């Protein structure tokens, strides 16, 4: 009986996370759930396409409020406080409403929210086992992609967990660069479709796999606006604090997988998480005018991937290893240059409780023609502390 009480199956947990009834808990308009997540760090140097700068800094600090609006709607607001160039910046990451109790397994979300493509993107960055997202996320999704739009989700009544959804967003942060401010972008720029399946493997393991597609109507480069890009590339793609994608294309494909193991399904004392994702970005070459031409050149698709393993070997300690690569194309005049970034990472974290984490991380980065980046070693000391009522994390 004890095992059964401790055991929370993947299907039950996932359905709770994705079904509209999951939000119908205690928080209400007269008693909202209010929380803050404090993220502070010291880092010995900067890393490409990342938000953390050299020295002491304030990371992704969140202020969140959520509640049931009534028996039909749930709402959430998440503001983010960050430091950049000595200035304090306040941004709005989430401001959405979610339907409750729609029939047939359907639900609708509208407003500003995290896209559900891939595995990591729909999770807040403070839940990560590493100080920054993998290089593929930083290159193709601006670390974590959130936007103004609408989502329709369906959870199928099957024995295994099976969810699917479609989204439409403004897509401002996913636009190809417009150096001269003369390009006419489409107001509705991003469309996504995804499916996720999952289930249990015996009494100790659970898994989830997903496929995602993102259509970016404004993702293709244009030849005329990038004639001068070569001299600005180091500045534009180095330290980017705008949450914009550094490399875009019209089509992005993502495959993801995660496996979690814990004795008898009890994650409190010991557990292992193995996850990985693969990105492929296509159709990014310029739309060439009739009187222009690019040098005839075979241009490879942009791609990236990572594989991560995190083992919590006691209630208070966890260790993680992650390796990732990203291959992108940089336009120089009438041709493209291939470039690659490789990152090998090790982290050790101390958790005094579920609400406090102190993390030490080492990253070895190797760049091949990647915006002038040289091989480097990055050391990050980070704390993540949660105050107030904070909801359960995603699977």
Automatic annotation (TrEMBL):
Identify the domain of life: Bacteria
* Key words, A-Z: Signal
Q: Does the keyword Magnesium apply?
A: no
Q: Which residues, if any, are the signal sequence?
A: 1-24
Record keyword Signal present: yes
Indicate, by first and last residue, each region the UniProt record lists as having compositional bias (Basic and acidic residues).
224-243
**What InterPro entries is this protein classified in?**
Porin_dom_sf
Give me the ranges of the annotated region Disordered.
224-245
- Name of the protein this chain belongs to: Zinc-regulated TonB-dependent outer membrane receptor
């Amino acid at each position: 009986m004890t095992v059964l009480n401790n055991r929370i199956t993947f299907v039950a947990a996932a359905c709770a996370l994705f079904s509209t009834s999951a939000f119908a808990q205690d928080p209400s308009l007269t008693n909202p759930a209010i929380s803050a997540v404090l993220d502070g760090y010291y880092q010995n140097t900067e890393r490409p396409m990342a938000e953390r700068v050299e020295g002491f800094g304030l990371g992704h600090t969140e202020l969140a409020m959520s509640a049931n609006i009534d028996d039909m709607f749930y709402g959430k607001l998440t503001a983010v406080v960050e430091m950049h160039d000595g200035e304090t910046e306040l941004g709005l990451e989430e401001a959405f409403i979610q339907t409750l109790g729609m029939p047939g397994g359907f639900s609708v979300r509208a407003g500003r929210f995290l896209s559900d493509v891939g595995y990591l993107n729909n999770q807040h960055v403070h839940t990560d086992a590493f100080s920054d997202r993998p290089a593929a996320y930083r290159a193709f999704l601006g670390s974590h992609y959130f936007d103004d739009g609408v989502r329709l989700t369906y959870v199928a009544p099957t024995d295994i967990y099976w969810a699917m959804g479609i989204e439409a967003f403004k897509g401002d942060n996913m636009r190809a660069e417009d150096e001269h401010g003369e390009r006419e972008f489409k107001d509705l720029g991003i469309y996504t479709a995804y499916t996720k399946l999952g289930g249990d493997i015996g009494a100790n393991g659970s898994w989830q796999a997903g496929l995602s597609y993102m259509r970016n109507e404004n993702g293709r480069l244009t030849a005329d606006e990038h004639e001068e890009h070569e001299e600005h590339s180091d500045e534009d793609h180095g330290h980017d604090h705008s949450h914009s994608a550094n490399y875009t294309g019209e089509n992005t494909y993502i495959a993801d997988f995660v496996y979690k193991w814990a004795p008898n399904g009890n994650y409190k004392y010991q557990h292992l998480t193995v996850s990985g994702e693969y990105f492929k970005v296509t159709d990014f070459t310029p739309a060439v005018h009739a009187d222009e031409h690019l040098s005839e050149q075979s241009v490879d698709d942009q791609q990236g991937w990572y594989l991560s393993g995190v083992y919590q070997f006691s209630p208070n300690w966890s260790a993680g290893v992650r390796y990732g690569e990203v291959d992108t194309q940089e336009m120089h005049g009438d041709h493209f240059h291939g470039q690659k970034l490789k990152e090998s990472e090790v982290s050790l974290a101390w958790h005094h409780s579920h609400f406090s984490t102190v993390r030490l991380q080492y990253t070895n980065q190797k760049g091949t023609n990647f915006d002038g980046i040289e091989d480097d070693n990055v050391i990050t000391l980070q704390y993540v502390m949660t105050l107030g009522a904070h909801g359960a994390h995603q699977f």
